[in-house]
Amino acid sequence: MRGAADCRPFARPIREGMPKRRDGRTFGGVTSPSSRPSTLGDLRASGHVQRSVKDEIRQNLLTALRDGTDPWPGIVGFDETVVPQLERALLAGHDVVLLGERGQGKTRLLRTLPLLLDEWTPVIAGSELGEHPYEPITPASIRRAAELGDDLPVAWRHRSERYAEKLATPDTSVADLVGDVDPVKVAEGRSLGDPETIHFGLVPRSHRGIVAVNELPDLAERIQVSLLNVMEERDIQVRGYTIRLPLDVLLVASANPEDYTNRGRIITPLKDRFGAEIRTHYPMELDDEIAVIRQEAELQSRVPGFLLEILARFTRLLRESTSVDQRSGVSARFAVAGAETVAASAVRRGAVLGEDDPVARPVDLGTVVEVLRGKVEFESGEEGREFEVLDHLLRRATAETARARLAGIDLAPLVAAVEQGDPVVTGERITAKVLLDELPELPVLDDIADRLGASDPGTRASAIEFALEGLYLARRISKDTGDDGAAVYS
User: Fold this and answer.
1) What pairs with residue 210 in β-bridges?
2) Is the full-model pTM beyond 0.85?
3) Reduced to 3 DSSP states, what percent helix, strand and coil does the chain have, rounded to the nearest 5?
4) Distance between the two ends of the chain, CA-based, in angstroms?
5) How far apart are CA 7 and CA 26, in angstroms?
6) Which domains, from first to last, does the chain contain?
């Protein structure tokens, strides 16, 4: 477990190998080398070997496994469960659907798949579907290849351009996914049966790439039907015309398990065409829950590790509570948003009170209940008790964390000092310096700070306030909360 010394802000990382595109040829600073073959003849002379998308993924995955490198950067808690299943599915060449509740990392996992593609791949320059120079599939590219021969121009496409993602929404149409007749091309004199009248949709435009459909069952049934030929025969049909395009795509999707059944909103033939159905889950270990928060949260101030642990325990208690609708789940985004809210509360306090380097304290945890209770769905019988349930579970999480983090430290001297001396006042309007000045000089305070990695005044004040809150929840000292938010330990 990490200590409070690890309380610096954790920014969301950009996935290695998947930089954001800045212009036509640059992707996060990675520019296509000019030394690569620029014509079909040069490409053949270089010895380039064409591979299908699934072969490409298979070989790159095997290489990563043999070399001991992590093919799934940023994926936490799936090492022994989801990842091995997904790797077996990809090695088998299967289309995959991930089944899981909201906030289980399904989309994050899908967006990692392009890292298994070659970084650069050749395409026919100017081709609508990004066809391989060795295998043109559209009439226009076939005609150009026949006319130009080895002079056919070749461009290079980065793997970040070979991943297409579509969120299934009620307004999604067949034209969006597959394509439709382009009236402009028809007006130019072409017949309706001419394949060159087609305006291609997302799936054919992802030829030689990966297509991800989020929340697949939300597609209307007639839209789901349009994917059947793509997944089995690898061709498409547009308005009754069958266009034989040997599409080379890996189709992946995500879905809620409740919807992905015959009684749900998925048609059986489409369900049957996926080679692998893989169940995701929330982090099973507390350390994994904390690691997700650290990785995903964009913190505006320092948040000590024990506060992140409280939020992780709080989230896990919500997932176990009978008062919460577990069919909806409690997303990992809840804990992430909670950490960001706590950090923001510290920033606000710092601005109001003039603290130059604000550090989150236990007093900031109350903002999580106030701000984020709308992110949790409760059972119908709990109407009106939402705040009470959340507040109770947050207290439990704090008490469990205090017992785990402070075990072995004799806190009796601190209890005696609070009982015999002046009350200790904290709250939103109390700075870390004022809080520390209220406390007597006790060796136990140094023990607490050392245990929690508190090396500066801000984190030290947070650690001691955490110890006081733990003593209160253990019923060893009392606590009174005023209307102004001030908490008095006595």
Assistant:
1) 163, 250
2) no
3) 45, 15, 40
4) 31
5) 35
6) 32-279 (3.40.50.300), 297-489 (no CATH)
Amino acid code (one letter) for 319: R
Which residue type is seen at 209? Answer: G
* Mutual angle of helices 305-320 and 386-406, in 10-degree steps: 130
396 Cα distance to chain centroid: 27
DSSP letters, 455-468, are -SHHHHHHHHHHHH
- Nearest C-alpha neighbor of 444 from the set 422, 484, 471: 471
Task: Output phi, psi for 437, to 5 deg.
Answer: -65, -25
CB 308 within 8 A of CB 294: yes
In whole angstroms, give the CA distance from residue 37 to residue 60: 22
CA angle at 300 for the pair 18 and 109, rounded to the nearest 5°: 30
CB 286, CB 316: distance < 8 Å: yes
Q: 358: which 2 tokens?
A: 């604000």
359, β-bridge pairs: 302
With the CA atoms of 410, 307, 289 and 390 taken in that order, what torsion angle do they form, in degrees rounded to the nearest 10? 100
The rounded distance, in Å, linking the Cα atoms of 136 and 91 is: 26
Are 10 and 294 in contact, with CB atoms under 8 Å apart? yes
Instruction: Please name which of 366, 360, 393, 357 lies closest in space to residue 378, comparing C-alpha atoms.
Output: 393
CA dihedral (366, 372, 373, 379) in degrees, to 10, reads -130
Q: Is the dihedral of CA 83, 85, 91, 96 positive or negative?
A: negative
CB neighbourhood size of 451 (10 A): 18
Tokens 């026949």 belong to which residue? 146
Q: How far apart are CA 145 and CA 322, in angstroms?
A: 65
Tokens coding 351: 């601005």
SS3 210: strand
Alpha-carbon gap, residue 61 to 327, rounded angstroms:
34
Closest CA to 239 of 226, 252, 228: 226
Pick the residue with more confidence: 3 or 461?
461
Report pLDDT digits (tens) over 354-393: 888 889 999 999 888 888 888 888 888 777 788 888 899 9
Bridge partners (DSSP) of residue 479 are 489
β-bridge partners, 199: 180
How many percent of the chain have pLDDT more than 90?
A: 44
What is d(CA 387, CA 160) in angstroms, rounded to the nearest whole number? 44
Closest CA to 208 of 254, 161, 252: 161
Most distant CA pair in the chain: distance in Å? 96
